[in-house]
Amino acid sequence: MSRSTSRYRWSWVDSVVLLGIIGFFGFIGYRVNTVLVYQWDWGFLPGYLFRWDEETQSLLPNLLVKGLLTTLRLAFWSIILATLIGFVTGMMRTSRRLFPQAFSRLYVELIRNVPPIVFIFVFYFFISSQIIPLLGLDTLDQRLGPTGQSVVEFLFGPVSLLSNTFSGIFCLALFEAAYITEIVRSGIQSVSVGQREAAMSIGLSRWQQMRYVVLPQAVQRVIPPLAGQFIILIKDSSIVSLISIQELTFLTLEVANSTQRVFEVWVFVAGVYFVLCYSCALIFRRLEMRLDSSRI
Amino acid sequence: MNENTSNPIIEMSGVSKWFGDFQVLKDVSLQVFSGERVVVCGPSGSGKSTLIRCINRLEEHQEGRIVVDGIELDQDTQHINKVRSEVGMVFQQFNLFPHLTVLENCTLGPMKVRGLSKKEAEALAMEYLQRVRIPEQAAKYPGSLSGGQQQRVAIARSLCMQPRIMLFDEPTSALDPEMIKEVLDVMIDLAESGMTMICVTHEMGFARTVAHQMVFMDEGRIIERSPPAQFFSEPEHERTKLFLSQILSH
Fold first, then answer.
1. Which end of chain A is more exposed for a tag (fewer CB within 10 A), N or C?
2. Would you call A194 and B96 a contact, using CB atoms and an 8 Å cutoff?
C-alpha cells in the first residue's frame, strides 16, 4: 500500500489537528490584540541584558544576563553534586546491608513525597543556616586572596552572594539526587544476575564486581533517563528563586515588576529556558549515540 | 596446595540445601581428586547445577561441609574469594562482560585479583585465547561473536585465573548444534592437559571420552557414581537406566 518511503505520512487527521492548532493560536492572538489591547514593546529588553558602564567604558551584563549566568552555575554544580549523591545512594539502595538500604530508602521517600517548594523552604531555613557556617562557606570571601576571589567568582559567581549560591546548589542537588538515586538503582538492577556471578567466579570482591562489571553497564543504560532528570533540574532551578537566590527567574520577576512589560519579559525568558534545556538534550543524544556505536 | 592424590581436592560431605521449603540437595557427599574429571548428569531439577554452584559459593549450602583445596567454605569472605580465584566456572549463558573487549574480559581477573600488570595480563590472555583458538578476536566486543566463540572466550577468561579446578555448567546447552563441537574440542584439550574438571552436561559422547567418573543425580541425591564404561553398559539403578535410555535412544 505505502508508496512513500518517508518516515511520516500525512493523513486527514493531521490536517484537522493542524487546523485546530492554527485556529487556537489565531484566537489567542486575536484576544490579545483586540480584547486586552496589549501594546507589544520589545525595545527595553537589550538594556536589561547588558548595560554600558561609564566608569570602565565597557559593556557589562545587566540583570537578565546576570540571572542567566547564576542559573547556569547553579545548574552545573547541582548536576555534578546531585549525580555524585545519587550514585552513592543508588548503590546503597541495592546493598544487602540493612543500614545503607534503610537510609537511602528513607531519603528517597522523604523527598519524593514532599513538594519541592516545601522541601526547599524547610531545607533553607532549618538546615542551610547550620550547614553553611559549619563548612565555613559564609566567611569564605574574607579568607580568600585576590586570585582566589577571582577563581571563586568565575566558578560560583559574585563572592558577596556565595553562601546564598551554595544554599541554592545544596537544596537543588539534594532534591534532585533523590530522583537520580532511583534511576541509578533501576540501572544497577537491570544488569543480569549472570554478570555478577561471572564476576564472582573470577574472584572479584563485591566492590570490584560493582566497579568493573555492574556500574559501567548500568551507567550506559541510565544515560537517557539521567539526561531527562538533568533537564528537569535546570527547570527546577527556578524554584530556588523563592529563597532569594538571584537566578534567572528571580531577576526576571524584578525586571517584570519594574518595567511592567510582563508578557515580553516572560516570553523571552521562556525562550531562554527552552534553548538551555534543549541544548542539554541534544548534547546527551550525541553522547548516547557515541556510546552505542562504540560497543560493536 | 600439594599434588598429593590421596587427599581429595574437593570434598563435600553431607551437603544439604533448600530453596524456601524445597530441598534441592539432600545429604550429598562427593570427593574429587586432583586431575580427576567428573561428569554430572541427571534430569532437569535434579540439583546438578546447584551442586557445582555450591563449590564456588554461587549458592550457599545450609548443612554439611565443603572443603576446596584445603579451604573450608564458611561465612568467611576471604575463604570464599580465595576459593573462587582457584576455581574457574563456565556458564550456560556465557556471561561475558558486554562492555569489555574479549581481551579485557580475560585480563580483568588477573589484573584486579592477582595484581598482574596490564602487560603481563595481556600476554597471559593471548596465550589462553590461542589455546581456545580465537586470538584473532581479541580486540572485538563479545556481542559481535558467535555463541561458540563466546563460550570459548568464557573458557579462556576462566583459565586466565590459572585455576586448579574448572566447573562447567551445561556449557553447550545454549549453543547451535554446529557450534557444540568447537567448544567440546576445547574442553577435551583442557582435559588432556590434566585439569581437574567437573562438568554438568548432556553430551554423553564427551562424557565417554573424557570422564573418569560419572555421577548421576535425581531429586537432589547422588544416585549412582561409577566409571563411564560401567555407567553406560551396566548401570546399577533403574532410575539411571531409564534416564540413559531416554537420552541415548536418539
1. N
2. no
